[in-house]
């Protein structure tokens, strides 16, 4: 008798040896991996310079033919598991250059994950590391070393090209800023970042208002993103389609297509606040004024909604998110939300068009095909209200009366991109009922529109769950009979807790179940 786990076949006798290897590896990890912490605070302001083998990046013309391919793939119940690298994988050496932390411990961690049946590793490729010091000065050496280590461990790669910063979301462990030369421009012109109505800027991501404005050493933001993608593909061409199976393109804060309406870590917002609209940099305001003039209502272009509360407001008592003549249902409300969400969709369309074009040549050879991925946020609080205010401020014009995710997914469909969906571990029953949350409702909506628009799904968890209940919920959502089976699942993230006995004993069976054809 034999079982298939993670691409290997083990007899029952071999399984006993396999479990012994896992136990030895786990003991090493508990002694040595605490796990791979990161840069000292402010590090990046200091000085230094397969599964996708048959997948294609699909053009609009190929969409109808793709439907049968996607539906057929759903018969294959195997869901490969990727595990995302720790946020603190890099540190500084004595000379001030970055290096991989605890290389031996990381190597053993990768071996343990491979033995457990994990298919691949997710790696964020940071703009703020590679093009850190000056324009066009790309240094890929760190990722060359890391990718080789992962490849030598027999694991595949999900690469997330990250054009954002995680300084505010790393809980005081340091983090990765935007490139230093971008920060220098931002010190002079803070309008290259998103701004709220009080004028506070957020330097986690460039405002989409500069997508077409050549403010960045003579380049537009879109040109910077395109040049970075081209450099990446040229450097790692031999890995694409063989080791690198999925490439996610950063589209906003945390890599997600959204506005930074709920800034985490800087004290302005806390759950379950509705957030604030982020359109007050001068470039977006100029665009709003032009849109209002085209609408024949120039007065609508002076500012965003003035009755929409603040970051930590609750929907009740906030006029814009209730029913009334000055609400989101008014002519002005519809105009503003169409513009606000529409600009975000245009942003995604422009970047994904460039990414699909760059990767198109690899489709001439099935051995080098790769899955293009776009990540969306999981704004699940206040989902059961009429207005869905937290989604509106994030840029998703999704209400009880309007499907705001359909136009987003339509753009992904046009460029053959998969949708990276969150919340697969979450249950409505585990959320505070007062805040009218529904991660399950949000997930169901995304699954439905993805099926309608013939878009592949990639899953991920939003919160860390290593208990049996949470892992089982992930599995059931990956195999939802009412939706397409997800193409892969990315677990966030590798850390010390995953290797603890009680968690490891849950995680390994979960991976084996997901990695086995049913």
Strand order of the largest sheet: 3-6-7-10-12-13-14-15
Please provide the ordered H/E string of secondary-structure elements: EEHHEEEHEHHEHEEHEEHHEHHEHEHEH
Biggest sheet record: 8 strands, parallel, barrel
Whole-number radius of gyration? 23 Å
CATH fold name, please?
TIM Barrel
> How many domains?
1
- What top-tier CATH class fits best? Alpha Beta
* Parts with pLDDT < 50 across at least 5 consecutive residues: 1-15, 32-75
Global mean pLDDT = 87
Estimate the helix proportion, in percent: 25-40%
> Strand content of the residues, in percent?
5-15%
> What is the CA–CA distance across the termini?
16 Å
Number of strands: 15
Tally of DSSP helical segments: 14
CATH architecture: Alpha-Beta Barrel
Shape: globular
Structural class: alpha/beta
CATH superfamily: Glycosidases
Oligomer: single chain
Task: Report what the structure shows.
The protein is α/β, with parallel strands linked by helices. It has a single domain, classed as TIM Barrel (Alpha-Beta Barrel), CATH 3.20.20.80. The chain has 14 helices and 15 strands. It has helices spanning 12-32, 63-73, 103-116, 127-130, 141-152, 180-188, 221-235, 282-294, 331-359, 389-394, 406-414, 439-452, 468-478, 501-514, and strands at 2-5, 8-11, 81-84, 90-92, 98-100, 120-126, 156-162, 193-195, 201-206, 244-249, 256-257, 371-376, 418-421, 457-460, 488-491. The strands form 4 sheets. An 8-stranded parallel barrel has the order 3-6-7-10-12-13-14-15, surrounded by 5 helices. α13 links the parallel β14 and β15. α7 runs parallel beside α9 and α13 runs parallel beside α14. It is globular and about 65 Å long. The two termini are 16 Å apart. GO terms for molecular function: beta-amylase activity. Its EC number is 3.2.1.2. Keywords: Carbohydrate metabolism, Glycosidase, Hydrolase, Polysaccharide degradation. Belongs to the glycosyl hydrolase 14 family. This is Beta-amylase.
